[in-house]
Amino acid sequence: MVTRVVVGAHYGLKDWLAQRVTAGFMAIYTLVMAILLPLAGDGYEGWRALMAHGFVRFITFLFIVSLCYHAWVGIRDIWMDYVQSTAVRLTLHVLTALALVGYAGWAAQIIWRL
Amino acid sequence: MSTRTLQFKIYRYDPDQDAKPYMQDIAVEVDVTDRKLLDALVKLKAKDDSIAFRRSCREGVCGSDAVNINGRNGLACLTDLNTFPEGKPIVLRPLPGLPVIRDLIVDMTQFFKQYHSIKPYLINNDPPPERERLQSPEDREELDGLYECILCACCSTSCPSFWWNPDKFVGPAGLLAAYRFIADTRDQATSERLDNLEDPYRLFRCHTIMNCVDVCPKGLNPTKAIGKIKDMMVRRAV
User: Cβ A13–B198 below 8 Å, yes or no?
Assistant: First the structure.
């Protein structure tokens, strides 16, 4: 195969936009939790009651998904910048995606296991 | 006429003679009438004619004497000698990130390849009118801050994204030129131009580091132009 520089993958805008939207949402979530956490009761029971609330469940789930998508774009960009071999880069992309999906499931399990 | 002595540390490399690059310490006498760094470089060349650098118009229009001055890219012909701190040598290196041909001269092939990749010319398939394609003053105003680029490469060679991917990332100079034609109301290839840049490498390697804005000797703002290209892509997509 002839080695040529190939560009024109025709994606980028969606990820760029998603990274900004997720960052905005995470900033708002942080502010909301900064208000709600002190209002929750002390200790494990307080946290559990807070996380059992429907609204908090909704925004916390969105936060976990946002964090993972945001991290996916950021980490992938780092691999794209620094790893030149396509095979190694693809492997790292796959490992990153798998790890992030795993982390999302794990985070949900930690917060909502009863 | 009174003179003063300036100390220089200059990157030297002649691939025909040197195994590797080295920094040369050299001093030169300049007259009070020598105001710009390029004047001192010309004196240096008279003293040691093996030193190689590019220069042409000596007034910040041709963009050929871009070098790395004390760690910062700039044009030798626009850099005032009085801005250098007393007693410290002036460190000159070639523009970073491009292959060195000799001393301060770099191979700009990659830079111009990226520039050409954005089709830096007006695309309009209508038959040309008898005199010229007209624009309203407001439409013409949009091109201010874009058309003034002299392609000196100070911006692209100070951009870390361009250092890592010079073969794939268009770079600030190329993207500024791309927006110059995207913004031109006489151009009919806006959509093709946006398609050409809709790529994780070509446009979206820009992470708004803004080194380009910091060093541009013409005071232009490639980051702003890149932001406008992204805005247009969003407007087209949603």
Answer: yes
